[in-house]
């Protein structure tokens, strides 16, 4: 009997343990359902709203005044324009430099063509004296030489002589010409040669007037636009250069008689300082 009772109790204990384990397994596998009076659908919705508010973007900034809006808009548009432009147009300096180089080349080509034409003919007008006819012929031959054209059309030389011409020239009927006597910025040819010490040290005013009239006759013979401006009272840039050549050939020292015409011109342009930009700037600052 005792053995039966002990076996019965053991069986009950084992069954109780099995029931407890089954209950635990059932509790773990079953979904947990929240309960209680404080857990409602509205509470869950409020939690969701709170979480959404935490990730919202900050409110937009106040609108700028109209003046600031236009400035900011122009900055953005300028930046966009620069980003869309080709590299060659982003830098204004390169564009300006390119335009300037093109202009210099164009002027050099026109001046070179005009110089190669010389005085239009190796023979001076019939009204010229024998001395003038000889000077005309020498100047025409010198200008017809390609070496003379290359010398005067060198970029630095031509640029300096253009600046010199512009400083003493004046506008007549829409064209810039250099007169013998002028009321322009610094004056005409007479004033130019006085300031640079060419007259009376190398040439007299009578000689300068003679040379000017010969070059003006050549300009009229070639029928360039400046010949008709103001009755042909002034010389354009190429004929101003021709005047300088004629002056040099007349004023060259006897010790340089064996030199070529272009060597004489190069020597005297430097001796007179006509291609010295600093000298021209000093004269302009002193006279204006």
Describe the structure in your own words.
With 288 residues, the protein is mainly α. Helices cover 66% and strands 3% of the residues. It has helices at 2-29, 41-54, 66-84, 87-90, 92-116, 130-144, 146-152, 155-168, 189-195, 205-222, 237-251, 261-272, 277-287, and strands at 170-172, 175-179, 234-235. Strands 1-2-3 form a 3-stranded antiparallel β-sheet. It starts with a helix and ends with a helix. The model is unreliable at 32-100 (pLDDT under 50).
Provide a compact summary of the structure:
The protein has 288 residues and is mainly alpha-helical.
What secondary-structure arrangement, pairings included, does this model have?
Blueprint: H1 2-29, H2 41-54, H3 66-84, H4 87-90, H5 92-116, H6 130-144, H7 146-152, H8 155-168, E1 170-172, E2 175-179, H9 189-195, H10 205-222, E3 234-235, H11 237-251, H12 261-272, H13 277-287
Antiparallel strand pairs: 1-2, 2-3
Helix pairs in contact: 5-11, 6-11, 10-11, 11-12
